From TrEMBL:
Lineage: Eukaryota, Metazoa, Ecdysozoa, Arthropoda, Chelicerata
Keyword terms of this UniProt record: Signal
InterPro entries recorded: Kunitz_BPTI_sf
Keyword flag Signal: yes
Molecular function terms from GO: serine-type endopeptidase inhibitor activity
Residues spanning the signal sequence: 1-19
The name this protein goes by in its record: Putative secreted protein
């Protein structure tokens, strides 16, 4: 019986892991922001797991856009954000999330 429960829990966790969007667990760090001399090309959006909110940030040529969302709505939907209202600022960094990935 214990093996059946263990297998069920393992399968459930595996299914949850496959369904989760990696971008929801990505940590936005201060060094992800554009340098002062780099032109801003547009906005990216990222999720902060501590605040459970999505935040906007600039992207430039050196930014790996695949780690972020292209719209605020996509971020909120994929990361299951319950609150309403647009967030401003970076909302991230080492002060907010000490996870050193």
């Amino acid at each position: 019986m214990e093996k059946i429960i263990f297998c069920f829990l393992t399968a459930t966790l595996f299914a949850l892991a496959l369904g989760a969007d990696e971008r929801c667990s990505n940590v936005y760090r201060p060094d992800d922001e554009c340098d002062t001399n780099e032109p801003r090309l547009g906005d990216i959006f990222h999720f902060n797991s501590n605040t459970q909110k999505c935040y906007a940030g600039d992207y430039c040529e050196s930014t790996d856009k695949s780690k972020y969302f292209s719209s605020l709505q996509e971020c909120k939907t994929k990361c299951d954000v319950k609150e309403t209202g647009e967030e401003v600022g970076s909302g991230g960094g080492l002060d907010d999330d000490l996870d050193m990935e």
